[in-house]
Give the backbone structure.
Amino acid sequence: MQDRTRSISVIAWIVIVVGAVMLVAGGITWFTVQKQLADEKITVSKDADMFAGQPVNGPLTAYAEANVIEKHALEASGGKTYAEMAQDDPKRQTVMTASFLRASLFTSVVAFGVALMAAGLGLVLILIGVALLAVRRALRSEVRPAGP
């Protein structure tokens, strides 16, 4: 029984360490993406449905600004997307630039999501590791012989 509880302890600590690494990595990723967005000094357009005038420094403001860029690009192109426009259309470059900006903002939204998922999974792994240590303690207390 001693060997089994030792195995549980080793697995528990591995799970806790991996969880801690994921939690830290998720946090570092979140704050790195947030800082990079903030450094760009983008502000959500005043005609946005949400977060108008606020700095773009998180997933919600990045998403809101991406939606406004799409609205402006469609207005400029008469409702056409980049792929629908004629190659010699002078507005095609503007719509292409808007498409790239939107893609960049959506990439940051995805990065925030991955960071949150990593941190959340890290927390869950830490809790699983702690639970395994509690199981190990319970098993060890059952095995101990009663005193004299």
About this structure: The chain has three helices and no strands. The first helix runs from residue 2 to 39.
